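lol so apparently i was supposed to do this last week
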Amino acid sequence: MKSNSKLNRVLIVGGAHGNEFTGAYLIKKFQQSPELIRRSNFETLTLLANPRAFTAVRRYIDRDLNHYFSRVDLQDTTLSCYEDLRAKEIDQMFGSNSENPIDFIFDIHSITTNMGLTLIVDNDDPFSLQLAAYLSSINSEIKVYSFGDLYPSPNLLPLRALGKSSLCIEVGAVPQGVLNAEIFMKTEALVYAILDYLENITSEKLHIIKIHLLSTNI
Ligand SMILES: [Zn+2]
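anyway here it is w/ zinc ion bound
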């Protein structure tokens, strides 16, 4: 997404993998208290991406939901297991041809390895790189990982590919099916920092952040 594009809708995703509780429970909290994520310059939406896998405390029911968001897969009617149908449903709700196309998606995952608070940026997207640079400048714990000009697996596009821009958040170490209070609170604070950044760049404070970013070596 270009830095000067209009930002109308932001989607926060959790539970794309059902046993990653940090993101799933953050979504539940935000759905119960939407004022926490409400900002004035754009609409913030939430998605518990794989509710059946979350209920079953499993990564997925039939296969990994986070691999089937390419246009080819979304239009392939022979793909019809639970996660295939859920991917099509999510595309109809939030994809580029939906009534609510999403400008920016951030998808929260947790992991059993010690990645701390890691931001994953795809496709050298300048908008996400600027956001990542800003976040790492205000929180020294944040690490940024980029796959360069590709997604991790170009033929297996993740859910976040539905957005014009996106960021993946990986937090850990936390066991699967476990909620760790410290990691939950750090991730929650990160969500608010992202929303506040997006609010700022769409308001008069834009030039202040731009000046700040110009002095940040990315
Ligand atoms: Zn995951």
